[in-house]
Amino acid sequence: MDLLGDQWTLLVMREAFAGVRRFDRFQAELGIARNTLTERLDRLTGAGLLDRVRYQDRPARYEYPLTDMGRDFFPVLAAIIRWGDQWLADESGPPRLLRHVDCGESTSAVVDCADCGGAMTAENVVMEPGPGLSL
């Protein structure tokens, strides 16, 4: 499945993390066509990242809150935001800031080793076949 293969999917997830839950708000925030948004929301709910909860019967309207699986996607999105801020932002600065609620500071994602806490980079990490790899 090509779940995250386009910009709209990542932007829908970004808005979900910003607290957007309703179709019309997603559409207003993103300027996305209704059919494209419907397809992305269907894809994200089908994959388990968003839930679909009815909040009105007539007409039927739904909210799309993050699931546990969706909330667990945050570090991935934060890393993509950090990369975009470093390589794609213009001179006016990044379009969104991540503020750590616990300390109040603006921050960015880092990837550290879960065992020793050291920074993980392309230069100091190797990928090896894991037990789930079948040839």
Description:
Keywords: DNA-binding, Transcription, Transcription regulation. This is HxlR family transcriptional regulator. It comes from Actinophytocola oryzae. GO terms for molecular function: DNA binding. The chain is mainly alpha-helical and about 140 residues long. The protein folds into two domains: about 5-70, Arc Repressor Mutant, subunit A, CATH 1.10.10.10; about 75-125, no CATH class. About 40% of the residues lie in helices and about 10% in strands. The strands form two sheets. The chain has a two-stranded antiparallel sheet with strand order 1-2. It has a two-stranded antiparallel ribbon with strand order 3-4. The chain is globular, with a radius of gyration of 18 Å.
Task: Give the total of beta strands.
Answer: 4
Radius of gyration: 18 Å
CATH architecture of the largest domain: Orthogonal Bundle
Number of DSSP helices?
A: 5
**CATH hierarchy class name of the largest domain:** Mainly Alpha
Biggest sheet, in brief? 2 strands, antiparallel
- Mean pLDDT, to the nearest integer, reads 93
Q: Separation of termini?
A: 19 Å
CATH superfamily of the largest domain: Winged helix-like DNA-binding domain superfamily/Winged helix DNA-binding domain
Q: Which spans of ≥5 residues are poorly predicted at pLDDT below 50?
A: none
Order of helices and strands: HHHEEHHEE
The total tally of domains equals: 2
| Widest β-sheet, arrangement of strands | 1-2
**Judging from the principal axes of the Cα atoms, what is the shape?**
globular
According to CATH, the fold-level topology of the largest domain is Arc Repressor Mutant, subunit A
Keywords: DNA-binding, Transcription, Transcription regulation
Organism: Actinophytocola oryzae
Protein name: HxlR family transcriptional regulator
GO molecular function, one term: DNA binding
